[in-house]
Write a sequence for this structure.
């Protein structure tokens, strides 16, 4: 038999990011902790990717709805800032999903710091001949790159 | 509504929150008007980061000043004189060069402030600051890259950058002022020490200006008053525009 915490975590983990719907909030490392007290009150902690991420309010509402629908009406979703979110919390599966969706996944942050010239691989053709057009993209967590191999622009989930 | 904050910690967090909101709004005014689509996206992304940082600091301020006001109440229901942002961030966007120079001067300052506050004994402020550091590094990098490109660019881009620098420079003096609020908090580790900020800021800004072949302006007049609610003329218009919808439709949300 699964515990309430496991059950709630499983349900909350399935909530998808409204801006990158191939990823769940668990994939992204946004879902931090689930707690249930003796009276059945549920606390779910989530953390934003960026301070101003506009998806956070939607995620917050989606998590609350999912947990309520799973039979836990007394739920509160808390936004915690510490420790600060990092792309290192993204799983390998999440990185694979991003790549298949056409977004170059973040590299390991340590590798990024030490090997600044390590190229981002084009998710469309696999070429390493890519360059950054803009450090800012369609969402706070993405940058805009272009590929010299296939001449296509593509987003990159930037290391953070 | 008059300023009700009494705890100096709440005054200090309000200053930083107002800096974030006001600069965010100014950058938002570039939306659909930037020189290129990429810059449109970049400037509004930076605005979004600042808005997020500002919201978090308003939420903390509401606890520290004991008013438990909403973030919207701080943004939309205070009058011009109640805002305690520095004068630099409220300066009009001007041309792209002026916006980039404003970004360079303020982001350099802001990065040092957030770094210092990452060690604050106020755990909430420390968490907000630690997160913001990672974001402002991008903002500063963006401003630095453009300063280098435009400063060391064409005759015209250099001229515009130097003009913007000369115009905005006087407003930077205010960033490093001490007053009764900062003096008390610096000792408690809850505010960045203005003197140490100044030293770090000078080194960082001087290096970028030098590489960009721009001349550091000599000290001239030093307008001040933002931290006490005394603002420059254009700020009132900005506040009116920013608050119009909320004032016309009280409690509006979507």
């Amino acid at each position: 038999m699964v515990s309430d915490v496991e059950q709630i975590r499983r349900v909350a983990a399935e909530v998808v990011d409204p801006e990158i719907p191939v990823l769940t909030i668990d994939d992204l490392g946004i879902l931090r902790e689930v707690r249930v007290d003796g009276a059945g009150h549920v606390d779910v902690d989530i953390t934003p990717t960026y301070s101003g991420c506009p998806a956070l309010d939607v995620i917050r509402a989606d998590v609350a709805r999912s947990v309520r629908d799973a039979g836990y009406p007394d739920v509160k979703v808390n936004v915690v800032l510490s420790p600060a979110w990092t792309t290192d919390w993204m799983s390998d599966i999440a990185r694979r999903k991003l790549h298949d969706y056409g977004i170059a996944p973040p590299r390991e942050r340590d590798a990024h710091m030490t090997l600044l010239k390590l190229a981002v691989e084009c998710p469309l053709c696999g070429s390493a001949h890519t360059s950054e057009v803009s450090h800012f993209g369609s969402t706070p967590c993405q940058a805009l790159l272009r590929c010299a191999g296939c001449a296509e622009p593509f987003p990159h989930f930037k290391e953070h | 509504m008059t300023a009700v904050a009494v705890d100096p910690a709440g005054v200090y967090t309000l200053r930083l929150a107002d800096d974030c909101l006001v600069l965010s709004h100014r950058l938002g005014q570039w939306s659909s008007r930037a020189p290129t689509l990429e810059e449109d996206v970049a400037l509004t992304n930076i605005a979004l980061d600042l808005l997020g940082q500002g919201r978090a600091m308003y939420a903390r301020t509401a606890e520290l000043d004991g008013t438990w006001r909403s973030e919207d109440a701080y943004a939309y229901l205070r009058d011009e004189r109640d805002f305690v942002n520095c004068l630099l961030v409220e300066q009009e966007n001007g041309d792209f060069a002026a916006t980039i120079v404003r970004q360079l001067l303020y982001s350099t300052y802001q990065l040092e402030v957030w770094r210092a506050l990452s060690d604050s004994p106020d755990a909430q402020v420390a968490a907000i600051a630690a997160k913001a550091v990672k974001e402002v590094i991008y903002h500063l990098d963006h401003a630095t890259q453009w300063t280098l490109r435009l400063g060391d660019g064409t005759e015209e881009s250099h001229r515009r950058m130097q003009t913007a620098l000369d115009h905005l420079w006087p407003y930077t003096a205010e960033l490093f002022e001490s007053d009764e609020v900062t003096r008390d908090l610096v000792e408690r580790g809850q505010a960045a020490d203005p003197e140490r900020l100044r030293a770090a800021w000078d080194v960082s800004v001087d290096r970028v200006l030098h590489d960009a072949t721009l001349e550091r302006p000599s000290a001239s007049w030093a307008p001040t008053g933002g931290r006490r609610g005394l603002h420059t003329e254009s700020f009132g218009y900005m506040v009116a525009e920013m608050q119009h919808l909320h004032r016309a439709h009280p409690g509006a949300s979507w």
